[in-house]
Specification:
Blueprint: H1 25-34, H2 38-41, H3 45-53, H4 68-77
């Protein structure tokens, strides 16, 4: 049975090859998160951030060590979200 793709892939710069410039890195993230079914992509910090605030900054990777609350706070500090 084929795994379900993350519903955010159409607009995700990581999935579409415009975020990272490290050979193989994007493909690894895609296989670990985007293409591995809901159980995996629902743990992606990019997906979680987008669901919470409606967008995701390019500095956030799927396995970001920050909590969702820390990510939102940092986005506010950077002026990427209203305070």
């Amino acid at each position: 049975m084929e795994k379900e793709l993350c519903p955010k892939v159409a607009k995700c710069p990581l999935f579409n090859g415009t975020l990272l410039k490290v050979p193989g890195a994007e493909e690894s993230y895609k296989n670990l998160f985007c293409k591995s079914g809901k159980q995996k992509w629902s743990t992606c910090k990019r997906y979680m951030t987008s669901e919470k605030v409606g967008k995701c900054s390019d500095w956030i990777l799927p396995n970001c060590s920050l909590t969702l609350e820390q990510i939102v706070s940092k986005m506010k500090e950077k002026g990427e979200l209203p305070l």
